[in-house]
Amino acid sequence: MKKFFAFDIGGTSIKWGIVTQQGRILSKGAFKTAKKREEILGDMATVVIEAQQTYTLSGVGISAPGIVRQDGYMITGGAIDEFFEFALASSFQKVVHLPVRVENDANAAALAEHWLGNAQGISNYICVVLGTGVGGGIVCNGDIYRGAHGMAGEFGWNITRDYDRANKLEDYSLNWSASVVNGLVKRYNDSMQQIDPDWSDEEDARVVLTRGFANDPIAAPVVNEFLESIAIMLLNLFAQFDPTVILIGGGISANHEFMAHLQAKVTEFISRHHSLNGIRDIALGYVAPTKLRNDSGLIGAVYPLVRSVLVTEK
Known about the structure:
Elements: E1 3-9, E2 13-20, E3 25-32, H1 37-51, E4 57-64, E5 73-74, E6 86-87, H2 88-96, E7 100-104, H3 105-116, E8 125-130, E9 134-140, E10 143-144, H4 174-177, H5 180-195, H6 205-213, H7 219-241, E11 245-249, H8 256-271, H9 274-278, E12 286-289, H10 296-313
Parallel strand pairs: 1-4, 4-7, 8-11, 11-12
Antiparallel strand pairs: 1-2, 2-3, 5-6, 8-9, 9-10
C-alpha cells in the first residue's frame, strides 16, 4: 500500500500528514509558517526527511492558498507573499527527490470530498470554503475546472453589493461581506465599537453566531447580513454552474446551527426568485456541509497523486 506525504499550508501554520493510498491518515502534525520562502521549504523538507526514516513515500501533495497553475507554479500565494510567482512544485521536488503536486486549497478540499466526503459519486458540484476569505473549488464532469490561468473559484472577488465610487471596489466583494473574519467577526466588532469605544474585540465567530441566533440586538443584524451575503452567492452559483450540490467548508461549517440557518436563508431566497423557485423540485441542487473539514486539505492534496498511481496500475 503506497503512502504519501501531505502538506496543508496556511498563513499561520502548516499542517502535515502521512496519507495512505486509501485516504487514511496514519500520523499528522503542524508547525508554524516561517516568514521566508527558504525557511518554509526547509521546514517542510525536514519533516519529509524525518518521515522517510519510518515510511517509504511515493510522493508529496501540497495544498496551498492562492492561484496555482496545474504544473504547480504559484501565480499568487494568498497570505504568503513569498509564494507569489514561485515554482513551488518543481522547487520542492528538487529538495525531496519525490514527485510533488501542488493544488489550490479550495480545490484540494473539493477533491477530498469527491474521494471520501459528501461528493462521492457526484460529477458536478462546488465546494465553497468560508474563512479569512471566500474560496471555492468547481468540479465539472468529474474534473476540477481551473480556468485559463488557474484562477477559477475565486468567489470572494465577486461584487454582489451596491458600491460607493469613492471607495475601493473590492471593499464590496464577498471577501468582505461573506467571509467569517470580515463579514461576520469584524462587522460585529465594528458595531460594538460604535457603542463602546473601549470594546475589546471578539475573535471567536462561534460567540458571534450564538449571540446572533439568540437575537442579541447587535449580533443579530450582523449575522443576518452575513447569511444573506452567502445566500446570494449560492443562488448565483446555482444559476451559473447548475451543480448537484454546493458543499460549505471551513471551520464554520461544523456549526450545525449555522448550517441550519444558512439552508433556511437559501430556501427563503429561492422562494423569492421566480425562475429558480420554478425549478426548485425538478432541476435545482442543494446546500450541505463538507464531511472531512480540517483534514480535507491533507486528503485532497494527495488525491491527484493517488489518482495517477491508480491510472498507472491499470
